[in-house]
Amino acid sequence: MGNKTHPIGFRLGVIKDWQSRWFAAKQPEYRAWVQEDLAVRQTIIGGNTDAGISKVDIERGSNEVIVTIHTSRPGIVIGRGGQRIEELRKVLEGLIGGRARLNVEEIRQPELDAFLVARNVADQLERRVTFRRAIRQAVGRTSQAGAEGVKIIISGRLGGADIARTEKAMDGRVPLHTLKADIDFGIAEAATDFGRIGVKVWIYKGDVYQAPKVEETVEDDNLSPIKVTIGVDEASEQQDLEQQILDGPPDELIKLRDVPVVDSSQEKASKVAEEDDNAST
Questions:
Q1: Is 10 exposed, middle or buried (0-12, 13-18, 19+ CB in 10 A)?
Q2: What CATH code is carried by the domain that includes residue 64?
Q3: What is the reported pTM?
Q4: Would you say 140 and 206 are in contact if contact means Cβ atoms under 8 Å apart?
Q5: Is residue 179 part of a domain?
Q6: Is 212 inside any structural domain?
Q7: Calpha distance 73→89 (Å, rounded)
Q8: Which residues, other chains included, contact 159 with Cβ-Cβ below 8 Å and sequence gap of 6+?
Q9: Beta strand pairing call for 195-207 and 165-172
Q10: What is the mean pLDDT of each run of 10 residues along the chain (281 residues)?
């Protein structure tokens, strides 16, 4: 009890996805690719500290490595005429030793990204802004952007105090134990003259409901015709029947058709008349 887990790692495979997507068959390959991923992220984030990069997704294919950069300032990452991103692509290809493709995705609302909010608070602390004012303003902006809950905790020598302490600001609700709750989490550090001050941010964006699987129904119009296979004996019998129909009815049926049909009532009347004649004579 009381042990804390990472909110994103806790939801991996449920509502969250991995930031690195690839499969290594052997241990040396796995070790090398993990080190490559760390080097790629350090190169991208370290060379674009003012670009507002939140995260870097890496996906390895058979022929190339696809790197997706999530940033709130895509113009800084791309550069004039795509010059900066082309230079970054060449650096990554030399680091990876193969083909690399870069994608840049813009973060429309930086106030709802936990890492960018934490980085903003850390930058204000480095500029010696009052820590209470910094975290309260960040909480207010995040709530106004549409978040259902936000929590910010800062820890360290706040205000230059000799003894480190922790301050907390919260608005709304942040259900950390609910797996379907979409919670973003970010950590940043402020390098002040008094030492490092850590900033943690939790942002609750609402619940994620996975749509139930709908069973596929087959429509009548799309039904395929049924094929019936007939054996040799059945096929010959069917051909004989068709030939008889074409030739017409046999002679026995024709003779029966020519025999006159006598009504039963007329036959009885004729018998009664014969009996009367016999009686009179």
A1: middle
A2: 3.30.300.20
A3: 0.73
A4: no
A5: yes
A6: no
A7: 18
A8: 130, 131
A9: unpaired
A10: 85 93 93 95 91 94 92 92 92 92 94 96 95 95 95 95 95 94 96 95 92 59 58 66 66 57 60 67 56
